[in-house]
Design the sequence.
C-alpha cells in the first residue's frame, strides 16, 4: 500500500508542476507515462519508468530517496506475491521495518514540495516581497519559510537558492533589490544557519560566484553577515578577502566590525584600538554599537570593551555624538579601572567636541565621583584644563 502511495504522490507532484507552474519537463513525463499505460494496460512497468524519469529528469528525488523506494518495492513484492519461506508463511515485515519505511518515505518524498529550484526561487522572492512587513521577528520569518518552502528541500536546491539570494543582496543595486534587501538578507542568513556545512562547501567550491560585491549598502550588508557568521569569511576567495580588508581599512565603522578577519576575538580586542591612532573622528550608530556590545558580552571581555568605549568617546565627531558616547560610558563607569579613568580624562581634555558641549560639566562631575573612589587623593587634575567640573 505504501508503495502505491509513493507512485501516486509522484504523479500528483508532476500534475501540480504541469498545471500550476506550466513545467514542461513534468508535462513530458506525464505524457510518456500515459503512453506506456495505454500501450500495455496490464503491465506495471510504467511505475518503474516513472520513478526513473523523476529521478533523472527532475530535482524531486535524490539518490538516497531512490534507494529507499527500491527497498520498499522489494518488500512490497515479497509481501504481495506467493513466495513462501521455509515455514510456508508469506513474508511479513516486522514493525520496526514498517516504521522505518514510513519514516523514510515521509521525509524523503511525501513531505517534499513539488516545486523545482528555479520555480521555488521565483515564488519565494515574490512571496517575501509581498509579505516582508508581516514578520515582526526573525523567528516568525523562519517558521514561515520552513513551513511553506524549506521543509524537505534537497541540498542542491538550498544551494541554488543561496547563490541567487547572494546576488540579490550583495550585487544588485536597483529599486526592487533595495526595497527587499533586508528581507532577502534575513532569508539568506536563515538558509546558512540551517545548512552551514553545505553552504560553506558551496562558498569554497564556487568561490568566483561570490566575488564582486557592490559598494555602499551591499558592502554594509556583507560586513553585517560576516560579523554575525564569521565562518563565512574563511570560506571566501582570497580576492574577496582582500577587498574586505581594503574596505575595513578605509571605513572606521567597518574596521570596528571586522573582528572576523582576525585569528581570534582576543587578537581583535587587543589590537583594534591601536589601529585607530590615525583615524578621523566618526560616530557609531546605535545598532552598530549594540552589535559590538553583544560581541564583547559573548566573549566575556568587559575590560577591553571599556577601552573601546574610551576610543568611541575620543573619536566623537560632534556634541551630539559625544553626548551619546558618554551615555554609553556611564553604564560602565563602575567597572572602570584607575588607568582607564585617567585615559578618559585625557580624552576629554583633548577633544573640544567633548569638553565644549553643554553637557560637559554634568558628565565630568559624574566621572569625578568615580575618580574620587579610585584615584589617589593627590592626583593632579590641573594639567587637564578642559576637564571642568
Sequence:
Amino acid at each position: 500500500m505504501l508503495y502505491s502511495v509513493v507512485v501516486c504522490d509522484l504523479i500528483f507532484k508532476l500534475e501540480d508542476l504541469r498545471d500550476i507552474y506550466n513545467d514542461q519537463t513534468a508535462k513530458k513525463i506525464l505524457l510518456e507515462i500515459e503512453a506506456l499505460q495505454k500501450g500495455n494496460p496490464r503491465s506495471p512497468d510504467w511505475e518503474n519508468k516513472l520513478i526513473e524519469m523523476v529521478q533523472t529528469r527532475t530535482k524531486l528525488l535524490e539518490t538516497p530517496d531512490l534507494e529507499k523506494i527500491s527497498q520498499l518495492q522489494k518488500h512490497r513484492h515479497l509481501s504481495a506475491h506467493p513466495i513462501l519461506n521455509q515455514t510456508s508463511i508469506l513474508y511479513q515485515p516486522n514493525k520496526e521495518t514498517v516504521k522505518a519505511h514510513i519514516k523514510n518515505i515521509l521525509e524523503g518524498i511525501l513531505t517534499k514540495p513539488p516545486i523545482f529550484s528555479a520555480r521555488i526561487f521565483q515564488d519565494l522572492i515574490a512571496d517575501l516581497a509581498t509579505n516582508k512587513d508581516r514578520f515582526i521577528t526573525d523567528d516568525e520569518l523562519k517558521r514561515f519559510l520552513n513551513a511553506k518552502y524549506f521543509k524537505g528541500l534537497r541540498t542542491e536546491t538550498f544551494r541554488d537558492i543561496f547563490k541567487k539570494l547572494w546576488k540579490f543582496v550583495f550585487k544588485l543595486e536597483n529599486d526592487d533589490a533595495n526595497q527587499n534587501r533586508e528581507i532577502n538578507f534575513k532569508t539568506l542568513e536563515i538558509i546558512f544557519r540551517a545548512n552551514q556545512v553545505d553552504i560553506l562547501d558551496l562558498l569554497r567550491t564556487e568561490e568566483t560566484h561570490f566575488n564582486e560585491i557592490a559598494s555602499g549598502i551591499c558592502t554594509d550588508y556583507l560586513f553585517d553577515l560576516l560579523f554575525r557568521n564569521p565562518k563565512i569569511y574563511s570560506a571566501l576567495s582570497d580576492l574577496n578577502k582582500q577587498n574586505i580588508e581594503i574596505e575595513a581599512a578605509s571605513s572606521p565603522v567597518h574596521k570596528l566590525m571586522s573582528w572576523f578577519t582576525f585569528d581570534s576575538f582576543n587578537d581583535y580586542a587587543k589590537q583594534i584600538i591601536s589601529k585607530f591612532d590615525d583615524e578621523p573622528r566618526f560616530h557609531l550608530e546605535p545598532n552598530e554599537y549594540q552589535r559590538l556590545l553583544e560581541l564583547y558580552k559573548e566573549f566575556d571581555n568587559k575590560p577591553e570593551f571599556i577601552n573601546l568605549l574610551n576610543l568611541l568617546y575620543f573619536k566623537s565627531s560632534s556634541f551630539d555624538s559625544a553626548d551619546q558616547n558618554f551615555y554609553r560610558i556611564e553604564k560602565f563607569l563602575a567597572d572602570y579601572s584607575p588607568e582607564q579613568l585617567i585615559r578618559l580624562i585625557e580624552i576629554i581634555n583633548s577633544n573640544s567636541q567633548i569638553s565644549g558641549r553643554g553637557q560637559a560639566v554634568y558628565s565630568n562631575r559624574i566621572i569625578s565621583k568615580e575618580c574620587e573612589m579610585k584615584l589617589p587623593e593627590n592626583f593632579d587634575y590641573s594639567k587637564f584644563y578642559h576637564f571642568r567640573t
In short: The chain has a mean pLDDT of 90. Residues 115-259 form one domain.
